[in-house]
Amino acid sequence: MLFNLIMLAVPVVFLMASAILAVKAFERGKSRKKTVLTQIFSFAAVFAFCMVCPMVASAATGDAATASSGMADGLAYIGAALATGLSCIGGGIAVGNAAPAAIGATSEDPKAFGKAIIFVVLGEGIAIYGMLVSILLIFAR
Known about the structure:
This protein is mainly α. It contains four helices and no strands. It has helices spanning about 1-25, 30-60, 65-110, 115-140. It is flat.
């Protein structure tokens, strides 16, 4: 029981410490780009740690059938989360660039509203496709 609590606390403590160190480094004058890259690499390290530990634990128990079923479910949920998260980030970037351009085009020529709004909607469609992929990953097993 204590080991499980420690294994649960290690990633949380590591991520909190890396966030605090990144803020302190930025305050000391490090560039914003370096601090963000440090955060991304620390997140990747914690993600790898969290993915490897359950695989090692399930291999040590020898219960391959139950472990592979649980691992497949877990990986499906991770894939669904990645599909939704990354598509929403991409949709946000697309809308963030297209919406000001659509507003500018509409302010110059009100007849261009219909054409301009299509590009904004296409950017939002990316997030909807990611959500649909997530739904398929979760419920089509």
